[in-house]
Structure formats: structure tokens, C-alpha cells
Amino acid sequence: MSQSTTPHRSVRQRVAQFFAFDDPWVRPGGLTTQDWVVGAVATVVSVVLLELTRGLGAMNELEAPRWVQVGAVVVGAMLLVGRRQWPLVVAVLGAAHMFVVGVTMPQVMAQFAMQVIYFAIFFSGVAWARSRRDMGVVLGGVVVFMFAWLAWQMAVGVGMDSLRRELEPRAAESDGLLPLVTSYVLLTAITNVIYFGGAIIGGQVSWRAARQGARLGEQARTIADQAEELQRQAVLAERLRIARELHDVVAHHVSVIGIQAGASRRVLTTDPPAATAALSQVEASSREAVAQMRSLVGALRDPADGVSDGRERRAPEPGLADLATLVGEAETAGLTTAYEAVEATPGALEELPGPLGLAIYRIVQEALTNVRKHSTANHVGVVVRVDPSGDKPFAEVEVVDNGRPRPGTSGSGLGLLGVRERAAARRGLVEVGPRVGGGYRVRVRFPLEEREGAR
């Protein structure tokens, strides 16, 4: 037999949960012009209704002077002004006002306008109280006091004797299930339960609605802040990406131009054909640099569809298919290059995603640039390995040269930083440094997701 896992809660716990006694949230309030308007309108309406009631002769039995009656109504109505600023204080003053006026001028206390005012006071005491526990103590005390006063009037006060004398002549005409006096007492008790219960429960419902609205507002602000932060991070990431692209493009092509221009200068008079070939390489590298930089500028202007100036479309970004050309362009009179692609399964290289291919291309480009600018190497080899079928599928690029650092040259470090950032963006492992047997190695291994390897 299965048992419910919901813990049993006592009545006290249910009451504490409903009234949120442990909730530290404070409903924002304060004295505003609206409160003064409410007090003024309530005062005018109450005084008018008092005089209309007087016109019906309902106040003839009162011994209190007329100005006292009007003053009692005005004081009760003006309590509404502070119902949001001092909710519990006003609730206590409202209960005291109800008791004093009810004892001395019951006809004034019982009129419709005053009952509405008392209801609003008790409602506001629950809805606007700063501390939920203090509210429970104060309003609980008010309710107990009011029902004790009602019980005293019914049981030991003059109210019961007067009630019997008033209702006795009509007792013979009553055909109800209960005696006339009993019916009156129960009806009065039920009416007061509904009156005070409605004020307290309604006030708590109002407080909970305000609390929920505040939570939704906080969530909306949090979402807006997070969206703004994500947007800022996206912009920063894009700026870093473009900075890496620009560095790779400029560093690579400018180094090629410099080396080929130097070679052309040395053989300009002794070997004109070689000088012409070197200058042709300078021209090709400069064109390629301009084309790639224009592509990046086009991405900045219109990243949605790749239109740079409204007339021409961005050139496609380089990838694995361009590696052989890139490695071949790096070869000079004093530097030989080699490129090899190793595939565990046929076509694995072509199935790699474009962003990964671009990352590998830029890593090779940066490594070759460093060899030309900072190494004494006369040979550099580039190997790309792809194995999408193993236990840990991977794509790896390795650039190895046979030189040593060239004296008097030192880079900014941005190139290798870009290599590490590209690897980190795809959870790649980087190995950069001199080899034990001589030379320098740049190796990056990217893990492949199953969907990338099986694409």
C-alpha cells in the first residue's frame, strides 16, 4: 500500500504559510496625494450619509451633540490617509475608534459609510503591513477584542435585554427553525465573521498579488540584465574574433611580401626572372590580403547576408581546401614546405565543419608566419590528421620546422595567443614549443563530436 510523500501540515503551519510570516519582503508604501484625496472623499461622503440618516430620524435617540457625531465621522474617515504609511497603527486606531463610537454612539458606528471605512482600515492593515508577523499579532488581537466585545454585549451587557424587549412582540409571528433571539445572535456572529474575515483574507490576497508582481518585476529585470550581458559578451567575442582574423591576415601576407621583396632586391640585377617571380608573389599576396580584409570589413557592415557595400558579396572564408595553396605560398628560396593530409576514413577531411576548417587554416597560417619571421628553419612541414571513427574522434594539425629562434627577433605574442584562443573555443589541446631533437612544433588537437565526424 503506497503512502503519500506529502508531509502533513498542521493548521498553524498552513496559516503561517498563507500569511507568509517568514517572508522578509516589504511592500513599498508611503504617504501620497492619492491618500489625502481618498481621506477627503471619504470624509465628505460619510458626513453627507450621516445627515441623510439623521433626516430619517435614526439619530434621535443619541444624546451626544451633533458636532461630536460629525467629528467622530471625520476622524474615522481621515484615518484612511495613513492606511499605507502606518498600516498597523491605523488598524489599532480604527479598532479603538470603532469601539469608542460603538459604545457611545452605536447609530453612528453602524451606518454604512463607517462600516466601509472600518473594513478598508483592517484590509489595509493586512495588505500594507511591513512585517507579516507583526501584522498577525496586531490584527489577531483586534479580531479577538472585537468578538470579545460582541460576546460581552450579547451575554452580560444591556444589549441582550434590549434585544429581548424589542423582539418579543414579533416572536409569535416568527416561523423560523430557530427562536428569534437565537437567529439574531447567530446572524450577527456570522455577519461579523464574514466582515472581519473578508477584510483580513482580502488584504492578504492583495499583499500576495503585490509580492508576485514584485517577483515578476525582479525576474524581468534579471532577464534584461542577463540579455544585456550576453549581448555585451557576444560583441566582445566578435571583436576578439575579428582581431584574430586581422592579425592572421596582415601578419601572414605582410611577412610574405617582406620576404619576397627582399629576395627580389637581392637578385634584381643578377637574376631578373627570379626577381620578377618574387615581385609576382608580392603582388599576389597583397591582392589576397586586400581581399580578405575587405571580406572582414564586409562582415562588420552586414553580417546577415555578407553584402559589404550593397554591390559585391564577401569572398568565402578560407578552409581546409585552401591549406595546400597556403603552404605552397610560404615556400621561398631559403625555405621549403611540405603538406600532408592523413585521413582515417576516406573523405573525413571534407566532412569537417567549416568553422573548424577555418580555425585549422588560421593556426597553420600563424605558424608559418612565425617560421618566416622568427626562425632559421629551411624546411617546415604541415600535417593534418582526421580520425572520426575512434573512441575519441579528433582532428589534429601539426606544424614542425627544423630551425632555431632567429636572434634579434621577438613577436608580440598575439599570434600564439590567437592560436590558444581558437583552440579553447573548440575545447582543443595545444602543444607549442621546441622539440627535443631540434626545431619547433605547433600542434593542436580538436575533439570531434559524433555529429561532426559522421556528417
Automatic annotation (TrEMBL):
Name the top EC class. Answer: transferase
> What GO molecular function annotations does the UniProt record carry, in alphabetical order?
ATP binding; phosphorelay sensor kinase activity; protein dimerization activity
Protein keywords: ATP-binding, Kinase, Membrane, Nucleotide-binding, Phosphoprotein, Transferase, Transmembrane, Transmembrane helix, Two-component regulatory system
Gene3D superfamilies in the record, alphabetically? 1.20.5.1930, Histidine kinase-like ATPase, C-terminal domain
In this chain the Histidine kinase/HSP90-like ATPase domain maps to: 355-450
Transmembrane feature ranges: 88-106, 112-129, 136-156, 176-201
SMART domains from the UniProt entry: HATPase_c (SM00387)
What single Pfam family name could you report for this chain, choosing any that match? HATPase_c
The enzyme's E.C. designation: 2.7.13.3
Name the record gives this protein: histidine kinase
Species, as recorded = Knoellia koreensis
